[in-house]
Specification:
This protein is an alpha+beta fold. The chain contains nine helices and 14 strands. A hairpin with a 5-residue loop joins β8 and β9. The longest helix has 13 residues.
Length: 306
């Protein structure tokens, strides 16, 4: 298979190769990594992703193999590349085929169902919060939305800063400390400053959270990034970012100074040959005294204000 075909390998065939049993209804499987009597793992063949409702997790091919085989990202890629699509030994039964264009992974998750409105970021409450994190209004407004959620009780609504991802969801943050996501996914932004899954530059910069990305722009006093950008929105999404990284010659990793950040960096390094041997730079050395880019940027602002 081609070097990047690990991301395109049919998820249904991959599940069968991992020993998963198909469910009785279309696009369902019994989870291969836990006891699952109800076949609660659903796939979306069109997007080539999976979601295990019983475990509350999902993702792409690499995430699935890493979960099933308890292995590294590099080992997961090697396993997928060792398989042959449409091998008779791992054919999908006809009763589990997908209707073209149909998605049986629910597009609306419980948090998403509470969205009242998505609009331009304009709330002084949220703009003040962004400013308190060192983000100028023009940058916050360009890349973020105002997402209004209905509370669980009494019908109250709450405003959040929402950062869009490639799956149509939002990473959410608010001054109250609330942090969540409506639908998990990475965010890719090209070097022209557009939300796009098509690379423009030869270099890509990887951030863990969106305030780190916005802080990077703010420190450079620009609204447009100097490279392509991937915001993971969660280190659990590292596998989803690899197909995008594959198109770049240089990968700059501006991840957190903690165990999760270090593991994400090593996951990228472990698939370096699959990524066609790009130069991988640990950008966190630039802010080695701080946990992340935003913490560093806020410290710089305090120094400049003295």
């Amino acid at each position: 298979m081609a070097d990047n075909s690990f991301a395109l390998f049919p998820v249904a065939e991959l599940l069968l190769a991992l020993g998963a049993r198909p469910g009785k209804t279309r696009n369902t499987f019994h989870s291969p990594f836990r006891e699952d009597k109800n076949a609660s793992l659903h796939i979306d063949p069109r997007r080539n992703v999976w979601f295990d409702h019983g475990a509350g997790i999902g993702g792409g091919n690499i995430d699935l193999v890493m979960k099933c085989r308890d292995c590294s990202a590099r080992e997961a890629v090697d396993f997928i590349l060792s398989l042959s699509p449409s091998d008779p030994a791992i054919q999908v039964p006809s009763g589990n085929e997908n209707t073209p264009g149909e998605s049986l992974i629910p597009e609306v998750k419980p948090l998403s169902s509470r969205i009242v409105a998505v609009r331009e970021l304009r709330s002084p409450y949220l703009l003040d919060y962004a400013a308190s994190r060192g983000i100028p209004e023009k940058i916050a407004v360009r890349y973020c939305k105002e997402v209004v959620l209905r509370g669980k009780t009494f019908g109250k609504t709450y405003d959040h800063i929402g950062f869009p991802n490639n799956n149509g969801g939002f990473a959410l943050k608010s001054p109250s400390g609330f942090k969540s996501t409506t639908k998990s996914g990475i965010t890719t932004i090209d070097s022209a400053g557009a939300f796009s899954e098509k690379p423009l530059a030869m270099t890509v910069t990887v951030f863990e959270g969106f305030f780190d990305f916005l802080s990077w722009l703010s420190s450079a006093k620009t609204e447009v990034p100097s490279t392509d950008v991937v915001v993971l929105n969660s280190v659990a999404n590292i596998g989803r970012a690899i197909p995008y990284l594959w198109s770049h010659h240089t990968v700059v990793c501006c991840l957190d100074h903690d165990e999760a950040g270090r593991n994400a960096l090593e996951a990228i390094r472990s698939v370096r040959t699959v990524l066609r041997n790009p130069t991988i730079i640990d950008g966190s050395l630039f802010y080695f005294d701080y946990n992340d880019v935003n913490e560093w940027w806020m410290a710089m602002i305090r120094l400049l204000d003295k």
